[in-house]
Amino acid sequence: MTLDDAMHLVYWCATRESFTCVKSNIPCSYCGEVLETYYCECRLYMIRCKKCGLMAFAKAEAPDAAIMKTLGKEES
User: Fold this and answer.
1) Residue 6 CB contacts under 8 Å (≥ 6 apart), including other chains
2) Rounded to an integer, what distance in angstroms lies between the CA atom of residue 6 and that of residue 28?
3) What is the pairing mode between strands 44-48 and 55-59?
4) pLDDT digits (tens, 9 = 90+) for 38-73
5) Sheet with 34-39, edge to edge strand ranges
6) Of the candidates 45, 51, 53, 42, which has an alpha carbon nearest to the alpha carbon of residue 21?
7) How far is CA 73 from CA 8, 35, 57, in A?
8) For residues 72 and 11, what is the distance between their CA atoms, to the nearest angstrom?
9) Dihedral (Cα; 35, 41, 44, 50), 10-degree rounding
10) DSSP state, 33?
């Protein structure tokens, strides 16, 4: 399996509702919708915006830290 194949498989799986994401209080930096996280084990988080369809992955100590490394918008 190539990296392209793996990434398409991950994206396809992540767009299904067969797992539970946790809503955060942090808005998407692109559209303002509240972001969701899914813990993938070993400090790896998937961050997604259901409105935009954007998705990101980050290693972090906590979900909010993963969000702010990727798609999160600082509150003003």
Assistant:
1) none
2) 25
3) antiparallel
4) 999 999 999 999 999 899 999 999 999 999 999 998
5) 22-27, 34-39, 44-48, 55-59
6) 45
7) 26, 10, 16
8) 19
9) -20
10) P
Q: What is the pLDDT of residues 17-47, one digit of tens each?
A: 677 889 999 999 999 999 999 999 999 999 9
CA-to-CA distance for 34 and 75, rounded, in angstroms? 12
Token pair 């399996």 in the structure block, residue? 1
Q: Which two tokens stand for residue 13?
A: 């799986």
What CA–CA distance (Å, rounded) separates 34 from 51?
Answer: 9
Residue 3 is inside which H or E element, if any? Answer: helix 3-14
- Distance of alpha carbon 40 from the chain centroid: 10
**Residue 42 burial by CB count (10 A; 0-12/13-18/19+): exposed, middle or buried?**
exposed
